[in-house]
């Protein structure tokens, strides 16, 4: 008589609804992915975390020469390097996070095709690395404030900086998670993403004040949550214009994008291991 062996199938729970309890159950795996990504990011690099500092700093120097010295863009009464650096801090959080999150599933295809775990863990853990880089660049920003003798509004500035960070992380997670799911089917995402990020940067008030955008079109600019995040932190720190409705629009868009991205991701999750 032929003996039969039992086969165990590892699969997600029935349904495609997002479950915080499932993510919490696999929280140790989240820590593992995040810590591994941090180590891989700086492995065999000469200056390690210094890259998180040098990128916005060098970009600030270049934009200060071009847009402040040559073009003559104003900067809310604060030195332009300080004005530009705070915007670039948040922008590099977005750009770095987008690259990591959108490619997180492809980078972990060896694990994804072997065992089941919530597929949202790689994109969400990839965002953690970008936040770590953000805090490194924040140290340089404090140094710039001291060097240029700029005294910001510490109370409002701290609240605005935290709110802008949450807004930017929500936006980055939303767009990045959506593109991560699309990237499994269409590898064009990896090639197109740098071009998309570059266009978005110049279309956002990162290196120029949002007041340069004509007033009749300004609300449309806030459809890009990066505009709301950077405008919020500049308003809190330097007393720049605070557009309540514009920033509210950015918050609504970022939350809606994250909800849609998670829904689309969970809908696509079932076949990911087969086509990745």
What does this structure look like?
This protein is mainly alpha-helical. It has one domain. Helices cover 72% and strands 0% of the residues. The protein is built from 13 helices and no strands. Helix 4 runs antiparallel to helix 11 and helix 8 packs parallel to helix 12. The longest helix is centred in the middle third of the chain and has 32 residues.
Q: N-to-C terminal Cα separation, in Å? A: 40 Å
- Find the structural class using helix and strand composition: mainly alpha
Order of helices and strands: HHHHHHHHHHHHH
Helix share of residues?
A: over 70%
How many domains? The number is 1
Whole-number radius of gyration?
A: 21 Å
By DSSP, the count of extended strands is: 0
Catalogue the unreliable spans.
none
Number of helices in the DSSP assignment:
13
Portion of residues in beta strands equals under 5%
Descriptive terms for the model:
276 residues; mainly alpha; 13 helices
Topology:
Layout: H1 20-25, H2 27-42, H3 50-70, H4 80-102, H5 104-107, H6 109-112, H7 121-147, H8 154-185, H9 188-203, H10 215-221, H11 225-238, H12 244-269, H13 272-275
Helix pairs in contact: 2-7, 3-4, 3-7, 4-7, 4-8, 4-9, 4-11, 7-8, 8-11, 8-12, 11-12
Gist of the model:
By secondary structure, the chain is mainly α.
């Amino acid at each position: 008589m032929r003996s039969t062996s039992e086969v165990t199938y590892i699969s997600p729970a029935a349904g495609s609804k997002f479950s915080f309890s499932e993510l919490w159950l696999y929280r140790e795996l989240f820590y593992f992915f995040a810590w591994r990504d941090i180590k891989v990011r700086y492995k065999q690099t000469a200056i390690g975390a210094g890259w998180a500092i040098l990128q916005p700093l060098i970009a600030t120097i270049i934009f200060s020469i071009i847009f402040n010295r040559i073009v003559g863009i104003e900067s809310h009464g604060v030195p332009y390097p300080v004005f530009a650096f705070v915007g670039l801090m948040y922008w590099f959080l977005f750009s770095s996070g987008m690259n990591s999150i959108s490619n997180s599933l492809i980078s972990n295809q060896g694990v994804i095709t072997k065992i089941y775990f919530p597929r949202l863990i790689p994109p969400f853990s990839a965002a953690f690395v970008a936040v770590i880089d953000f805090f490194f660049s924040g140290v340089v920003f404090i140094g710039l404030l001291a060097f240029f003798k700029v005294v910001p509004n510490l109370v409002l500035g701290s609240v605005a900086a935290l709110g802008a960070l949450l807004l930017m992380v929500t936006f980055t997670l939303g767009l990045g998670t959506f593109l991560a799911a699309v990237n499994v089917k269409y590898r064009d995402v990896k090639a197109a993403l740098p071009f998309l990020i570059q266009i978005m940067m110049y279309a956002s008030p990162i290196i120029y004040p949002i007041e340069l955008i004509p007033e009749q079109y300004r609300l449309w600019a806030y459809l890009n949550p990066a505009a709301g995040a950077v405008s919020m932190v500049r308003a809190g720190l330097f007393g720049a214009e605070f557009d309540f409705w514009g920033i509210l629009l950015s918050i609504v868009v970022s939350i809606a994008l994250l909800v849609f991205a998670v829904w689309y991701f969970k809908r696509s999750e079932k076949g990911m291991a087969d086509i990745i």
